[in-house]
């Protein structure tokens, strides 16, 4: 604790966990039980997009295995420094779609707010790794413009909080935003896209459950797990608590080479999610962002995987395979 701050305000446990995340390549390699030979590349790649991973997520990795599906999502690799044909800085056209700072209105009836640039974990495949968050966040003075935009467009039924990860914001700010959104009569649902219940289950505390349970809007929480191994007991309990508070739980994943590009991994993930009351929603094709080409699974292989998955699972456990297309009316369904 920083001396002199304790009298002002108690820091919630999840915020200390967030602050204690591993950010150094050497520390991650040591925690994962890997040798120094991985270090130079990890340091070089971490200069392009900083490393960040909560300790609790690292604890779920198989030690000494460079192919561990959780480690692959967070360890910076030499491949990130290569330039690949067809991979760019803004692959989904987010900058063109930004009407008001922080407001992404690409699809009918729902609007996405990038409420923060911060994430608890830095996923190496992230399409936002080059995103200029400093210009995109509705800071205190710009918040009003986003709310006015939403209040004026009566076709909007749903507000999606995204980022970054919206649950890195304090419950005080989130509860205040929820209260302001509640006063807009045409809104029905408040959706949050977040990795925190999975990567930092401590985030799901009484304050969060309190305002979520109280809001007049129907809460929808889209978590983001890519592999069944991410869902340890703490993550499962966090999801159960969100469900008990009245939230609808969905999951989206990204299809990632070397992480979940097998029918076994995808089927196990769907089964594990269902046990927590979470339904598989989307399986995203990788957005073609510079530095992530080594995660790409081609469309033919992806469609074949989906056919096998459909044969193996009940329909409600099969996510929709989608691709983000700049300028499209929605995500493009591939299956
Ligand atoms: C993905 C996305 C949405 C939500 O799309 P759904 O199909 O409703 O999940 C909304 N706005 C933007 C900008 C998006 O990228
Ligand atoms: S949590 Fe989401 S926005 Fe943040 S780095 Fe991971 S994929 Fe990207």
TrEMBL record:
List modified residues, type N6-(pyridoxal phosphate)lysine.
331
Extract one GO molecular function annotation from the record. isomerase activity
* Cofactor(s) recorded in Swiss-Prot or TrEMBL: pyridoxal 5'-phosphate; [4Fe-4S] cluster
**Which catalysed reactions does the entry list for this protein?**
L-lysine = D-beta-lysine
Q: Spell out the InterPro entries in the cross-references.
A: Aldolase_TIM, EpmB, Lys_aminomutase/Glu_NH3_mut, rSAM, rSAM_sf
Family, as annotated? Belongs to the radical SAM superfamily. KamA family.
Listed name of the protein:
L-lysine 2,3-aminomutase
Annotated source species: Sulfuricaulis limicola
């Amino acid at each position: 604790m920083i001396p002199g701050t304790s009298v002002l305000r108690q820091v919630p446990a999840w915020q200390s966990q967030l602050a204690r995340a591993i950010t150094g390549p050497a520390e991650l390699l040591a925690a994962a039980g890997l040798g120094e030979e991985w270090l130079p590349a990890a340091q070089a790649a971490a200069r392009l997009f900083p490393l960040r991973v909560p300790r609790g997520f690292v604890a779920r990795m198989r030690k000494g295995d460079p192919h561990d599906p959780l480690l692959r999502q967070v360890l910076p690799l030499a491949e990130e420094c290569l330039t690949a044909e067809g991979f760019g800085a803004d692959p989904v056209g987010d900058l063109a779609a930004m009407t008001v700072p922080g407001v992404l209105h690409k699809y009918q009836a729902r609007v996405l707010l990038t409420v923060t640039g911060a994430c608890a974990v830095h996923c190496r495949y992230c399409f936002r790794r080059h995103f200029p968050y400093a210009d995109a966040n509705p800071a205190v003075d710009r918040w009003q413009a986003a709310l006015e935009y939403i209040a004026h467009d009566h076709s909007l039924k749903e507000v999606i909080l995204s980022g970054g990860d919206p649950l890195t914001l304090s419950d005080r700010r989130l509860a205040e935003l929820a209260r302001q959104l509640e006063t807009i009569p045409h809104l029905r649902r408040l959706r949050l896209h977040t990795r925190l219940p999975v990567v930092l289950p401590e985030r799901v505390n009484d304050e969060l459950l309190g305002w979520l349970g109280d809001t007049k809007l129907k809460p929808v929480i889209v978590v983001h797990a890519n592999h069944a191994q991410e869902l340890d007991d703490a993550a499962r309990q966090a999801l159960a608590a969100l469900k008990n508070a009245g939230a609808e739980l969905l999951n989206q994943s990204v299809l990632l080479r070397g992480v979940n590009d097998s029918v076994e991994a995808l089927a196990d993930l769907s089964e594990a999610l269902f046990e927590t009351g979470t339904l598989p929603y989307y399986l995203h094709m990788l957005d073609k962002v510079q530095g992530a080409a080594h995660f790409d699974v081609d469309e033919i292989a992806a469609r074949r995987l989906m056919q096998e998955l459909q044969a193996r699972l009940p329909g409600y456990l099969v996510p929709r395979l989608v691709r983000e297309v700049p300028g499209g009316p929605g995500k493009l369904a591939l299956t």
